[in-house]
TrEMBL record:
The chain crosses the membrane at residues 280-303. This is Lysosome-associated membrane glycoprotein 5. The keyword NADP does not apply. It is a single-pass type I membrane protein. Coiled coil: none annotated. Residues 281-308 form the Lysosome-associated membrane glycoprotein 2-like transmembrane domain. Its main location: other. The lineage of its organism: Eukaryota, Metazoa, Ecdysozoa, Arthropoda, Hexapoda. Disulfide bonds join C112-C150. Residues 107-259 form the Lysosome-associated membrane glycoprotein 2-like luminal domain. PROSITE patterns: LAMP_3. The gene is Dyak\GE12921.
Length: 315
């Protein structure tokens, strides 16, 4: 009887212990339904540290289980630094206009006149717009002798022509002789303004250029005139006109008019820069020297006479 009661109490005690253990486990061991890794880690830690099985006699180290999620680091945008394209500026060079060429030296010969020179014209002409402008033109050195006057002994000329057959250009030079002296009297130029030489000129324009000489190329008879430097001579429209429309520049000039028919080459040259001394100067110098000599001689004779007379008186 007592044994049955003891067994019954023991069984009730075991049941109470099991129930209390189950209630305690239900209260403290139940894990929260949380999806985060931190809550799960805390629950595992609490469970492993607080729960002991009744059948285990040794307490081991708590096993902590962590779920690590791989976190991808933020991607940084890489900016490509491209070197800027540098464009070299194009420098436009303005070509300066070339200077007008210098005239070439030409030589022309007739039976009475021999001429060598380089000549350039600078004159005014009418352009297509109605304005007047300046032009340069070189007398070509390959111009040919068209005509000449050699019979007269007072006035002679040489006529040079060049250019196409439809529009001949020309220069006419007159020489006069007076008192055994030869001089240039005039220059006449007939110039048609061709389109290849003057593209901006009014069409069908002809220029007449005339120079009335004031004694250029003056030289003694039977001598040639020579001058290397540039000489400018004014040009007008007519012989009596006073309005200047340009000039002619001549250089490397050597000319001889009224030559002998059988003469070859130039005669003795008379240079334009040679000093011409007047005959009055040497005559005056000669007279002064003669007077000085005469005065010295008279003085000497007078002194000698006085010394001679004094010598006789001493005796």
């Amino acid at each position: 009887m007592f044994t049955n009661k003891l067994l019954t109490c023991s069984a009730l005690l075991i049941i109470l212990l099991l129930l209390s253990n189950a209630v305690f486990s239900q209260k403290f061991i139940s894990l929260p339904n949380v999806g985060s890794d931190a809550s799960l880690e805390q629950a595992n830690l609490f469970t492993s540290s607080s729960l002991t099985t009744p059948t285990s006699s040794t307490t081991g180290k708590p096993i902590i289980t962590r779920s690590t999620s791989s976190i991808t680091p933020p991607t940084t945008k890489t900016t490509s630094t491209e070197s800027p394209t540098t464009t070299t500026p194009v420098i436009s060079t303005t070509i300066s206009p070339q200077p007008y060429p210098q005239p070439s030296v030409g030589t022309w010969n007739t039976s009475c006149i021999m001429l060598q020179m380089a000549a350039q014209l600078n004159f005014t002409y009418e352009a297509k717009g109605g304005n007047f402008t300046n032009g340069l033109y070189n007398i070509p050195n390959n111009a040919s002798v068209e005509d000449s006057e050699c019979k007269s002994q007072t006035t002679q000329f040489i006529h040079l022509i060049w250019g196409p057959e439809t529009s001949k250009q020309s220069i006419l030079m007159y020489f006069d002789k007076s008192n055994d002296t030869t001089v240039l009297s005039s220059i006449q130029i007939h110039l048609t303004l061709l389109s290849e030489d003057f593209p901006d000129a009014m069409e069908n324009q002809t220029v007449q250029l005339i120079h009335k000489s004031d004694g250029e190329f003056k030289t003694p008879e039977k001598m040639s005139y020579h001058c290397t430097r540039v000489q400018k001579m004014n040009m007008t429209e007519t012989l009596d006109a006073k309005q200047l429309i340009g000039w002619i520049s001549v250089s490397h000039v050597q000319v001889e008019a009224f030559r002998m028919a059988n003469g070859t080459g130039f005669s003795v040259a008379h240079d334009c820069d040679s000093s011409e001394t007047s005959d009055v100067v040497p005559i005056a110098v000669g007279i002064a020297l003669a007077a000085l000599i005469l005065v010295v001689l008279i003085s000497y004779l007078c002194a000698r006479r006085r010394s001679t007379s004094r010598g006789y008186m001493s005796f």
